[in-house]
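Please fill in the sequence for the structure shown.

STRUCTURE ENCODING:
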C-alpha cells in the first residue's frame, strides 16, 4: 500500500548485495516472504479497525523489473 516504508541500514544492504546506494526516487522491485506475527480487529466509537503485523523473513531487491520467462 502507498506510504508503507521499509528502512534498511548498511548491514542489511550488505546482506542484500548492494555495493552502491540507489538514487533518491529510483524504483526497485521487492520479493519478500513474511510471517504473520499478529492479527487484530475491533470496533471503537471512531469505527472499525483491522491490523496485521508481518515479520519479513526473506527479502530480495531488484534494481529493475525482473524478466519473466514465457512458458
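FILLED IN BY: designer on duty
SEQUENCE:
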Amino acid at each position: 500500500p502507498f506510504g508503507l516504508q521499509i528502512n534498511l541500514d548498511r548491514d542489511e544492504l550488505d546482506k542484500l548485495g548492494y555495493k552502491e546506494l540507489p538514487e533518491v526516487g529510483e524504483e526497485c522491485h521487492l520479493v519478500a516472504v513474511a510471517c504473520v506475527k499478529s492479527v487484530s480487529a475491533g470496533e471503537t466509537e471512531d469505527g472499525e479497525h483491522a491490523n496485521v503485523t508481518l515479520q519479513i523473513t526473506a527479502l530480495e531487491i531488484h534494481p529493475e523489473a525482473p524478466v519473466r520467462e514465457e512458458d
